[in-house]
Amino acid sequence: MSRDDHSPITLEEDDPNDFHLYMHWLYTTTLPTKTEPKAARAELGRLIRAYIFGDKLLDNSYKNGVIVAAIETMHECSPNADHVPLVYKATAPDAPL
Prior knowledge:
This is BTB domain-containing protein. This protein is mostly helical and 97 residues long.
């Protein structure tokens, strides 16, 4: 998928932490994740937001990396009631997330 126009993408509505995580991934191709049980649920929420951010930027490599990290995190917890509406609201019906 690509954009036909070359107009700037505004990030005014995006969380700076999502951008920071994306920049980390751009430089290292790694996603620092927390998989200990106490932090896993919050981490899963962060990864869902990261996927949505990557979708906005049309970066499939990043989204794939986020999905791998989310799967690893889901070994410790499952999505909760707060995660599901966020995914449905911000992703396309055919999104793999």
